[in-house]
Design a protein that fits this description.
Layout lengths: L12 H6 L2 H10 L19 H13 L6
Length: 68
Amino acid sequence: GEKGQVAPTLSSRSFQEKASDAMILRTIAEGRPGTAMVAFVGAEGTGFTGGELADLLAYLRTLSPRRR
């Protein structure tokens, strides 16, 4: 499908300005109930580590410059 059809386009300025780092990290780690967004931090060390989550957040923030 088209970008952002199911979820917000992560590179959109609107998303980048509204989404806090904590919200993005929580969504990646815990997923979004009732959506296709599954959790990426699982039991017993499965999924992303804390360092990998930080790296992923840093990458996501490069997709669209935030207005300062």
